[in-house]
Amino acid sequence: xxxxxxxxxxxxxxxxxxxxxxxxxxxxxxxxxxxxxxxxxxxxxxxxxxxxxxxxxxxxxxxxxxxxxxxxxxxxxxxxxxxxxxxxxxxxxxxxxxxxxxxxxxxxxxxxxxxxxxxxxxxxxxxxxxxxxxxxxxxxxxxxxxxxxxxxxxxxxxxxxxxxxxxxxxxxxxxxxxxxxxxxxxxxxxxxxxxxxxxxxxxxxxxxxxxxxxxxxxxxxxxxxxxxxxxxxxxxxxxxxx
Length: 242
Fold this sequence. Notes:
Blueprint: E1 3-7, E2 10-14, H1 17-20, E3 29-32, H2 52-66, E4 70-75, H3 84-87, E5 93-99, E6 113-121, E7 140-143, H4 145-151, H5 161-171, E8 177-180, H6 187-195, E9 198-203, H7 206-221
Parallel strand pairs: 2-9, 3-4, 3-8, 5-7, 8-9
Antiparallel strand pairs: 1-2, 4-6, 5-6
Helix pairs in contact: 5-6, 6-7
């Protein structure tokens, strides 16, 4: 670990999450977007297909310790959908991170959304359990992907801020702490700053770490989007148990 930055309620580590994660204590939730594990041609990081299953199983082991009672959201690549059951806990669910521009591109329908594997650790660990469960009532969100290009974060695959705000609002209550061990350009941290959640981020690439610091610092200069209230539920439960 070569650098630690404290910005508002965010603590940002420049370093390898394989080394840093085991040193951290409990958090309320994890929301993260790890490498894809598909040998992605545009990746500026190692996207090793063969090593990916080991990385995901290690991440799940770490979440068992770090989030003894809370939600874990892990973005995944669609080509690996047939392997999720090998890596993630029994009873996991899928959240659809939909894109508002994909339908106008000459690509397959699966490019219109990204799967987010999620589950909840702890007692009564169904996906609707827990103190913040009243907002876990939608299994999709249509993010403003076009807006990502407007911000131009210099990262090849940034997530829409509105999608990450949606997941952050689900994952932990106000003043809760959310961890992202694959921080990238810091969108999860921006969402936490917007919504009054504490944030811990880890990023191995110095260029992206600097971008994340700048974006999160800017987010703390802006007014919070929600003050002393949670996101209101807008739909009935779509996750199963009637």
